[in-house]
Amino acid sequence: MEPENKISPEMAVAEADVRSEESGEVVRGTSLWRDAWRRLLKNKLAVFGLVVVAIVTIASIIGPTVIKSAFGFTPDYIPTNDVRLIRSFPPFTGPNGEFSWAHPMGTDNAGRDQLARVLQGGQISLFVGIISTLVSLIIGVSYGAIAGYVGGRVDNVMMRVVDVLYSLPYVIVVIVLLSMFRSQTPRGQLTLLFIALGSVSWLTMARIVRGQVLSLKNQEFVLAARATGVSGPRIVFRHIVPNTLGPVIVYATLTIPQIMLTEAFLSFLGFGVQAPLASWGSLAADGVQNIAIFPWQLIFPGVTMALTLFSLNFLGDGLRDALDPQMRTT
Amino acid sequence: MFRFIIRRLLITIPTILVVISITWVLIKLAPGNFYSGEKRLPAAIEKSIREKYGLDKPWYQQYGKTMWNIVRHLDFGTSLRFEGQSVNTIIRRSLPVSAAIGILAYLLALIVGVTIGSIAALKQNSRWDYTSMALAMLGISVPNFVLGPILVLIFSLSLYWLPPSRWGGFPSRNLILPVLTLSAIYMAYIARLTRAGMLEVLRSDYIRTARAKGLSEKDVLIKHALRGGLMPVISYTGPALAFLLTGTVVVERIFALPGLGNYFIQASLNRDEPLIIGIVAFISITLLFMNLLVDIAYAYLDPRVRYH
Amino acid sequence: MSANGALLEVRNLRTYFDTEDGVVKAVDDVSFQLQRGETLGIVGESGSGKSVTNLSIIRLVQEPPGKIVSGEVLFKGEDILLLRPAAVRRIRGRRIAMIFQDPMTSLNPFMKISRQLMEMTQLHLGHTKGQAYEHAIRMLETVGIPDARTRADSYPHEFSGGMRQRVMIAMALSCEPELLIADEPTTALDVTIQAQILELIKKLKQETGTSVILITHDLGVVAGMTDHVLVMYAGKIFEQAKTTELFARPGNPYTKGLLRSVPDPTAEQGKLYQIPGLPPDVAHLKPGCPFAERCDRVEEICRREFPPFVELTTDHHSLCHFAHEVYGG
Questions:
Q1: d(Cα B170, Cα B176) in Å, to the nearest integer?
Q2: Domain membership flag for residue B273
Q3: Over the range A62-72, which residues count as b (16 or more CB within 10 Å of their CB) and which as e?
Q4: C238 — phi, psi (to 5°)?
Q5: Which subunits have 3 or more CB–CB pairs within 8 Å of chain B?
Q6: What residues contact residue A84 under an 8 Å CB cut-off, 6+ apart?
Q7: Residue B285 near residue B16, CB atoms below 8 Å
Q8: Which is higher by pLDDT, B186 or A176?
Q9: Is the predicted pLDDT of residue A23 greater than 50, yes or no?
Q10: Three-class DSSP labels, A215-271
């Protein structure tokens, strides 16, 4: 970090705080984030969200391994020793209808452990959500920052394009894209999914960043940087963009559940994640087939997913209230 | 106002052509076609069919012909999968199904969402406020493909109150579950938006003026606050419609309804090119015009925008 | 009750706000009287509690976070704070009307001017639509809106700030209230418009005999308009006196500071005086005088003990340990 970079955030804070002369500038800069964190911890629902998201994430990562060492089966393990046993067991039920800890969420039609599959599905769902959000973040922040910083006619055209894209049925286009370019490998399909989801989810981010940049670019620290001869792109990405961090983090947090929902929707329809990979959406799609006889096949992946999205949404809302009380309206 | 509409139409029409072109390009760029895959035909037959549909021509002739037919006659050609049926016929047949559940779902969402959101705003930080907002968050977080089957499980398969699926005409009891499933998420969004909009308006100076006039709380709410408070809901209607279309896709799938969405999924899975292009074009046109309507409504409702 | 025949008597009013930072005592033990036909000025910096005092009078304080903790607001001998909400609503607009600071946001942007005026008389005077419309136009003419008939059906955003404030005044006076509370009616306006609006209020007051409470942070405004003045600071009344007396012989260092910071057009050019420091954080008041930190004659006792409310004459009180000394010289 260059010294000039260190000026900007504190100057931005100084703008907002009349009494900043009395306290040290650096102290105020850090306490902005500390204040936000304190406010977040006061918000019970946000803390609930944070805890659940953390638990689900950790369980998804280490869960399948733990199950393997505890019970000796992987998410793909199919007990083939007796064909008659291959049917869906209800939760906490063993092969002969007795109580058993082995399958707390029951099994699917092939006898595979649902808990292990839900946790592994969580890996994919969270992974897709996070990576696609990153893709949309990169596109949205760059697009918005450039439009806002360059301004004038360029800004006008760029934002018109966003307006037009907003009114398109993008999920429909994504379905066409995914169905036409259906990859032969699950990994390829996953990559296609990242690109497709990321490239349609950046619009709001671009609008937010542009608005921020517009209001920031005429502030003193930017003028100061410009006066000392810092180049345009450098001003945008080293001075302005770091100051839009608050709203960007908030919106990114709210984008993750949206993308996860879209992914699940696509997988449910058969355009998303392909077997042998599974996400919550594709597990739910499998479960729907047997809803009348084996309801747990839908309920467990569905409820896990809903709980996770619920928590992510509360966390995002809490972050928004904590970082910028004025953003509450939308 | 009039100029505004004309200007928007001038943007809308090229946009639709761009969407159709993008879809066309995607389809043509993708490897394979309708006849690759399971439905492999003897070479001679395939050749004659390709000639019949003009698929043997160079790409620019195909593109030109497709676009010309669309622009000139709004003719999207004949479906490959449903032989002998024109795309227009299929759309005309399936549209009422999608429109019925879509419109009913949005109306239901508006009525319930605005009511719940207003009450939550008036009783901010009360138990009612927290409960309804937690429920709204749940509505946003539960995917409709989970909600739908669970509703079926409860009301059809356990309680035997309602039929689980199939199109039963309009109106019919068969509509209840699909409409509820589709409506839930909009209800939730609209309740949240209404609450946020109303809270902002209720804090504003002109509401204080209205109270200082001696108006009752009911009059303050209905005559003064509601209009401003609902503006966010009006602007949300545009994106909501786009969203609604994707929602109908899932709901039609779950409840086996012969709507546009279901046809679209089948067309995509089968690479039924004319049908894909036709439905994409139709949906885009609908959406863009709906957005135009929303903008006009917005301008009509907010005098500050109107005179700009 | 009000044996002296006061139109309004506020006794020991306390309005507190519950905030994240703690309890803010926005109005803390405020008492004053307003005689019929009189104009009372309430002066103070922002956050001094002057607006909350007046919102409390017609119970418009947002609850929560605000709460009128105790006190009496006797309007012609009747305690408004004890009335049922419906009875309070019959007083609002009809007998006590308010004008707010920002005419840009105080009118409903979605409603025609005419309808916003008509609402008043339809509600309180039982006017029919036609009567109310004619009355609205008469009121708009009274407050000096040119072409009132053609402009009545405009929306607020089509009016300038000064015009909107005239509309607010027309609205406030349309039921001939006994008391008009004007909360910084000119703060948001240009200087030339300010004078016009004040002149208008003064003129209408003389014509109708309405009593007025004029809230302002500008002592200059108070001078030509009011009979009595209250000076508020940190939720307390710091000084109260007849206007002429207050300007001639202030009995409080804070008032003195305010008077010194009014620009004097006759003086040679020089630096305008400014009271040093900022108003205190009302949520965390220290014991002692809330003004002590900024006072130029602060002594040790000021930081330790809360000052007494000293009676200088029967009509002149000051909240200061050294009120007599300040008053005397």
A1: 11
A2: no
A3: ebbeebeeebe
A4: -90, -35
A5: A, C
A6: none
A7: yes
A8: B186
A9: no
A10: HHCCCHHHHHHHHCCCCHHHHHHHHHHHHHHHHHHHHHHHHHHHHHHHHHHHHHHCC
Q: Secondary structure of chain B: what % helix, strand, coil (to 5)? A: 75, 0, 20
Helix axes of A114-150 and A280-289: crossing angle, nearest 10 degrees: 130
Neighbours of chain C (3+ CB pairs under 8 A): B
What size, in residues, is chain C? 329
Q: B246 vs A281: CB contact, 8 Å cut-off?
A: no
CATH code of the domain in which B130 resides: 1.10.3720.10
Handedness of CA C253, C255, C258, C263 (dihedral sign): negative
pLDDT band for position A102 (cuts 50, 70, 90): low
Instruction: Give percent helix, percent strand, percent coil of chain A, each to the nearest 5.
Output: 75, 0, 25
Closest-CA distance, C73 to chain B, in angstroms, reads: 16
Buried/exposed code over A18-41 (b: 16+ C-beta within 10 A; e: otherwise): eebeeeebeebbeebeeebeebbe
Q: Spell out which residues of chain B touch residue C174, defining contact as CB-CB under 8 Å.
A: none
pLDDT at A75: 66
Residue C161 CB coordination number (10 Å): 15
Contact criterion met (CB below 8 Å) for A205 and A251: yes
Place of tokens 């990859």: A183
Task: Using alpha carbons, select from A6, A38, A60 the residue that is nearest to residue A318.
Answer: A38
A167 with B146: Cβ contact below 8 A = no
- What spatial distance separates the first Cα and last Cα of chain A, rounded to whole Å? 34
Domain that holds residue B198: 90-261
pTM exceeds 0.90 for this model:
no
Instruction: Please name the residue of chain B whose CA is at the shortest distance from the CA of residue C117.
Output: B213
First to last CA, chain B: 9
Q: What share of chain C is helix, strand, coil (3-state, %, to 5)?
A: 40, 25, 40
φ, ψ dihedrals at B80, nearest 5°: -80, -40
Residue type, C114: S
Mean pLDDT of the region C171-178: 88
C-chain residues within 8 Å CB-CB of B210?
Answer: 108
Tokens of A120: 């592994």
Torsion of CA A327, A142, A194, B35, to 10 degrees: 120
The verdict on residue B155 lying in a domain is yes
**Token digits for A229?**
């001869």
Q: At B246, which helix (H) or strand (E)?
A: helix B231-254
Distances (CA, A) of C144 to B5, C111, C149, C210, C239: 38, 21, 12, 19, 36
Is B110 part of any domain? yes
Provide the domain count of chain B. 1
pLDDT at B70: 75
pLDDT tens for C20-47 read 778 888 888 899 989 888 999 999 888 7
Q: Which residues of chain B have pLDDT under 70?
A: 1, 31-42, 49-50, 52-55, 159-173, 305-308
> How many angstroms separate the CA of residue B192 from the nearest CA in chain A?
9
Query: Using N-to-C axis directions, what is the helix angle for B176-202 and B231-254, rounded to 10°?
Result: 160
Q: What is the predicted ipTM?
A: 0.85
Q: How confident is the model at residue C232 (pLDDT cuts 50, 70, 90)?
A: very high
Q: Is the pLDDT of residue A18 over 70?
A: no
What is the edge-to-edge ordering of all strands in the sheet holding C66-75? Answer: C22-34, C8-19, C66-75, C78-79
**pLDDT digits 0-9 by tens, A39-96:** 777 777 788 888 888 888 888 888 777 776 666 676 666 666 655 555 666 666 666 6
Domain presence at residue B102: yes
Inter-chain residue contact B143 with A302, CB threshold 8 Å: yes
A259 close to A133: Cβ distance less than 8 angstroms? yes
Q: Which of residues 159-188 of B touch C (CB under 8 A)?
A: none
Distance CA C94, CA A326 (A): 36
